[in-house]
Write a structure and sequence with these properties.
The protein contains 5 helices and 14 strands. The chain is of the alpha+beta class and about 325 residues long. The structure holds zinc ion (2 copies).
């Protein structure tokens, strides 16, 4: 696939509001698109490069939970995709009776045996070599691979229930004996927590803070100015939609609240955003890409929001935090 390129912003916000220039951050849009990534590739929902000696992370918190089968969920998606792409007589079900049974059954939570604790699902891995040289890879010294996994069931969180995430930073040169067959869960809590395998097309873009993080008089002036030009400040000029590395917070689900590292009290910064929807406002759609995918990963967090992972600004050893935004 050719490189995906975000068009220039419809307005240069710093030309009118130079006070925003120092607040600019470079974020890397990951642009996940359906594919067949291998462990050597940056991916979303693809296999992870994992040392065979390291235990795969698991979750033991859902022994009696009603669940879905990930195999059935994937089968259901294939059936729905095929059915949507073929003609059917008006006024009739677009599925055959047999397909209808499978599709409805796959989305019905029920008790499903899971031998032992639930293996976490690979969500994303990003190799430093796939990120632009002009952007510092957010990792401990020497690490060149970032990985995110999650438990595909809801866990209680400050901003609402979300999958529980785990992060790994790795030095790929140290992985001499990689795991060849990763464990897969037999159960998931929600269809929308199971990603479809996607390859990534990382692209740096410039972001500015959402209006919620600006002094109110400035936020009002910037938003009025953008509106007078027929665009929205946050969604067209400031914060990119979709999965990304770094950047600013896509505030909308909640208003900003104080955040600090639970270990040392230092400020935290956004590391990764996992967003189901890639397109957002039309101004962010990559140039020349057609058709524009809505939810290529099949993920959906909260009610059409995003899961944002924050890390401590003083130590990568301190625990990360995760919020719906
Ligand atoms: Zn769990
Ligand atoms: Zn800390």
């Amino acid at each position: 696939m050719p490189r995906l390129t975000t068009p220039p912003r419809p307005l240069d916000v710093t030309a009118t509001f130079p006070e925003l220039a120092p607040l600019a951050r470079t974020t890397i849009r990951l642009h996940p698109r359906p594919g067949s990534p291998a462990t050597a590739d940056s991916s979303l929902g693809g296999p992870l490069l994992w040392p065979a000696v390291e235990p795969w992370p698991t979750c033991s918190e859902h022994p009696a939970a009603l669940a879905l089968s990930p195999d059935e969920v994937r089968h259901r998606r294939r059936i729905l995709d095929a059915a949507r792409n073929r003609p059917h007589p008006e006024g009739t079900d677009f599925l055959t009776p047999d397909e209808r049974v499978i599709v409805d059954g796959a989305s019905q939570p029920r008790p499903i045996p899971q031998p032992g604790p639930i293996p976490l699902l690979p969500i994303t891995q990003l190799y430093a070599r796939d990120t632009p040289e002009t952007v510092a890879f957010p990792a401990p010294p020497g690490a060149d691979l970032l990985q995110l996994l999650w438990c595909p069931f809801d866990h209680k969180g400050r901003t609402g229930p979300t999958p529980r995430t785990e992060l790994r930073w790795r030095t790929t040169a140290h992985i001499t004996d990689p795991l060849t067959a990763a464990p897969h869960p037999a159960v998931i809590g929600k269809d929308r927590y199971l990603p479809e395998p996607c390859v990534l097309h990382p692209e740096p873009v410039t972001e500015y803070p959402a209006p919620h993080e600006l002094p109110e008089p400035l936020a009002d002036r910037v938003e009025d100015w953008a509106e007078s030009h027929g665009v929205g400040y946050q969604y067209d000029l400031a914060v990119a939609p979709g999965c990304k590395l770094g950047g600013h917070a896509p505030w909308s689900y909640t208003d900003p609240f104080p955040m600090a590292c639970p270990e040392c009290g230092a400020p935290v910064q956004p590391l990764l955003t996992i967003d189901g929807y890639e397109s957002g406002g039309i101004t962010w759609r990559p140039l020349g890409e057609s058709p524009v995918p809505g939810r290529p990963t099949h993920l959906n967090i909260g009610r059409d929001h995003a899961l944002q992972i924050y890390v401590c600004t003083t130590s990568y050893d301190h625990p990360h935090q995760q919020y719906i935004q």
